[in-house]
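<goal> How does this chain fold?
<body> The protein record starts here
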Amino acid sequence: MTGDDVVARATVSWADGLPTLDAQMFTLPCGLEVIVHEDHAVPLCAVWVGYRVGSSDEGDGTSGFAHLFEHMFKNSVHLFGRHHYEVLREAGATDTNAQTGTDRTLYHEIMPRAALETALWIEADRMGYFLPALDPKRLAKQIDVVRAERRQRYENAPYGPERFAVAETLYPDGHPLRYLTIGRHEDIAAATRERVEAFYRTWYVPANATMVLAGDITRAEAEVLCERWFGSFPASARPARRAWPQPVIAGPVRREVPDPLAALVRVRRAWHGPPVATDDDVALDVLALALATPGTGRLWRALVYDRPFAQRVSAHVQSGRLGGEMHVVADLRAGVDLADASRVIDDVLASAAAGLDEREVLRGVRRREAGVLWRLDGIGRRAAMLCGSQLAQGTPQVSQELARYLSLDVQKVGAAAARWLSPERMVEVVTRAGRA
């Protein structure tokens, strides 16, 4: 391809202060959704493939299955025992990785333009030729790997027991979010080939995936290449995703967790929150920034600066299709009385719920706006934005989310706090050093 073959396109355009990424979409007969973002500045192409499946889609003894698939998808029948990552890196790939969350599983790589078809071959192989290579030995190996990861990163890590305790307190038995993305040992160990095949045939069909091709490629080229590598796949339909009622906390609910690996007492408060891509979702995010941003956050100043009670303060919102959570965390300094620190947390949360000032809201909005602008730099980040937004909101553009932030004011943030952060709906987990 030469410069004369490329029609100049603006990679990013602006309207009313909001960015719009160049995004051309088409759907293959098999159901695979493809988004093309042209940027011919450098001869690279980012490939992002997102499947609409995560731990929120598990149930009936399948906790941890989505994450298990991420591990098993690293080789297939056509690679003859080699890993996908190994083949991609030999072809010049950079930033190759995968991740599993509550609502989606992502695979991505950035390729030299000349090696783009290697990535498409790998992704087609992942999507269509997984089962023939799934023998009992390979399945057993990956089950052992995932269970070892659970022990290493959760059970035998500082504050790991707290993660289980918070989820168990927020969600009732049977709810998929109760078991975290890593899943339960008993469910992972019970992953027979028949159960894995059923999960795969349900969720890893082309119609349940979105692929983003960003970089040195045109739509016409993308259509030819996608037809070459995915055109033979049979037509598929996107599976329905199960809905769950919002859990109700009759609280406040408090519990303590012993942790022999924890060096400091940790206080974590959590509430159920709104689903992703809602006005309250972004409002609570700005509230979290107003509470815990180092240097300016209300709770940070109260516990770290004004009184040396805490070593670290944080707050964050995580949200998905089944709802969200807001967390406020303080790691207390050695010797600090828990009751004294709790009173400060109570006072600060009450003052924040009563109302932030305009500067606090504006500071949080500008921080998130700057984050969006920063992610416009680089085809990998733009591909991630397009794919993530399409999976979460049904549109590849992030302008809708940014518009929600820019529309926030003191009243909206205060109203969201009143709706979601009632003390009667709070869960508090205190981690103490030591054994049970």
